[in-house]
């Protein structure tokens, strides 16, 4: 789990740095800048997980990256859903409420989804999908 968190932190830093550059000196609009930084962040997270956390699974081809990208889009959707429910459904419209619902609660739920999806759908081992063990030994989540 630590490797997954480290890859995620590196991806977040890459996403934030690129977004800041694209919005500032590059002068791109916010949606284009965020879309490009999201793709960069996903690529950094995939590389970190493929080369570090789940290096023993040796994913091949573009399919694992595509599934990883889809899992990350699902995570982003969870964050947006939390923000939408809080802001528009519950009427909690302050900046603090938006931050708590989107970047707090939404991020926590999205991280659980991303961890599960990455481990189960992208970097699965020879054991059955979703198994916490691999041929009688403790799975990769132990480091």
Describe the structure.
- This protein has 143 residues and is mainly alpha-helical.
- 71% of the residues lie in helices and 3% in strands.
- It is built from 4 helices and 2 strands, in the order ααααββ.
- It has helices spanning 2-23, 30-53, 63-89, 95-122, and strands at 133-134, 137-138.
- The chain has a two-stranded antiparallel ribbon.
- β1 (133-134) and β2 form a beta hairpin.
- α3 (63-89) packs antiparallel against α4.
- The radius of gyration is 17 Å and the shape is globular.
Number of strands: 2
Placed side by side, the strands forming the largest sheet appear as 1-2
Largest sheet, described in full?
A: 2 strands, antiparallel
**Helix count from the secondary structure assignment:** 4
Please tell me what the overall shape is: globular
Helix coverage percent: over 70%
Task: Enumerate the spans where pLDDT stays under 50 for 5 or more consecutive residues.
Answer: 128-143
Rg from alpha-carbon coordinates? 17 Å
Mean pLDDT: 83
Order of helices and strands: HHHHEE
Instruction: Classify the beta-strand content into a percent band.
Output: under 5%
**Between the first and last Cα atoms, what is the distance in angstroms?**
7 Å
Structural class: mainly alpha
């Amino acid at each position: 789990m630590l490797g997954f968190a480290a890859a995620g932190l590196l991806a977040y830093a890459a996403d934030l740095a690129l977004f800041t550059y694209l919005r500032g000196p590059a002068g791109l609009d916010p949606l284009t800048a965020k879309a490009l930084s999201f793709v960069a962040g996903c690529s950094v997270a995939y590389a970190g997980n493929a080369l570090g956390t789940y290096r023993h699974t040796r994913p091949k081809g573009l399919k694992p990256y595509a599934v990883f990208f889809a899992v990350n889009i699902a995570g982003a959707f969870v964050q947006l859903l939390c923000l939408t429910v809080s802001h528009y459904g519950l009427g909690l419209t302050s900046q603090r409420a938006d931050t708590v619902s989107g970047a707090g609660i939404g991020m926590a739920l999205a991280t659980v989804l991303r961890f599960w999806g990455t481990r189960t759908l992208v970097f699965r081992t020879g054991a059955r999908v979703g198994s916490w063990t691999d041929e009688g030994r403790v799975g990769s989540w132990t480091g």
